[in-house]
Amino acid sequence: MNVGGFIASILLCISWQASSATVSPISDALCRNMTQAGVMDNTAPVQCQRLRQVIFNYVDFDGKQHNNGHLVVLDAVAPYVGHIFDSLFSAKFPINKAVTIEHYQGDDDRSMTDNNTSAFNYRSISGQRSLSLHAYGLAIDINPVQNPFVEFSTTNIATFKPQAGIKYANRMKYRFGKTERKGMAEEIIELFAKNGFQYWGGFWDTPIDYQHFQVSRDMANLMISMDSQQATMFFKRYVDWYQSCSRFYPQAHSQHKFNDYVEYLKDKLGVSSLSQTYIRSPSRIIQAIQVDSVRSAICVKR
């Protein structure tokens, strides 16, 4: 490289500042705002004391840098969420915007229409009574327009939310004669998975929720039953398990054919639910959360 090229590369590195997400508790003022907006309630499974706000840098679809990305998630996962968005910033993966859901009075449809990336929201699953994993601070929706929610009627008619997401029904990033499409979730499945969000809505048959990343429901119930320190220890083990399985069994990893840490512990303890077992006997679960060698019989699905 010539001197001019070298200097140019240095200047580029300087101009593209390294991101460093910050994690902090929910302030009393923010908690009041969340409650007034209908995003939080005293019946929510997770209260403000167990939530954390993650503030991060991101780049938008025009290549402009922002330092005000803002998500609210469960305390134990917050550092990993920060790492996810630091990695997205470093890779220049575009995010349209990321403001907390109280800006939309908890209205998920409005947030999606505004192509807003979001996390915590005390609400039910769309069209159901069961609580969404967003109500636990354990689900993240990213770029809803580029990654729409697709629902199918009994007569097999597909409905896209937001409506603008229909432009992304074809999920190919590169198409002959067309420009490259950016901000699509398929590019970042592995980044979310190796940071603990192994379940992607794009894997589902119906509805298909391309924007959505979460943990399992049993895992969510377990983590909110634990105290913050226990949940943090468990989530670290969960992430370590995924990374070990993916390293030792690359083919199974590439085919999404290995169990997660929750399934491993259930197999180890001979139980059908970790969260219910923890409620009955917390010490039994805590004692089982330890570093174990990864074995094919329990890591790889049969």
Offer a concise description of the structure.
With 302 residues, the chain is α+β, with helices and mostly antiparallel strands. The protein has helices at 3-15, 28-36, 78-90, 108-113, 189-193, 217-225, 228-248, 250-254, 261-269, 274-280, 282-288, 296-299; strands at 22-25, 51-59, 65-74, 139-141, 149-152, 158-161, 199-200, 208-209, 212-214. The chain has 2 domains: 22-214, Muramoyl-pentapeptide Carboxypeptidase, domain 2 (2-Layer Sandwich), CATH 3.30.1380; 227-290, no CATH class.
Amino- and carboxy-terminal Cα gap: 52 Å
Beta-strand fraction estimate:
5-15%
Sheet having the most strands: 3 strands, antiparallel
Structural class: alpha+beta
The CATH class of the largest domain is Alpha Beta
Number of helices: 12
Second-tier CATH architecture of the largest domain: 2-Layer Sandwich
Number of strands: 9
Q: What is the typical, i.e. mean, pLDDT?
A: 89
Helix content: 25-40%
Query: Which residues sit in consecutive blocks of at least 5 with pLDDT less than 50?
Result: 1-18
User: What's the structural domain tally?
Assistant: 2
Please give the radius of gyration in angstroms: 20 Å
Order of helices and strands: HEHEEHHEEEHEEEHHHHHHH
Shape: globular
In which order are the strands of the major sheet placed? 1-2-3
What CATH calls the topology of the largest domain is Muramoyl-pentapeptide Carboxypeptidase, domain 2
Give the quaternary arrangement of the chains. single chain
Keywords: Signal
Protein name: Peptidase M15C domain-containing protein
Pfam family, one: Peptidase_M15_4
Signal peptide: 1-20
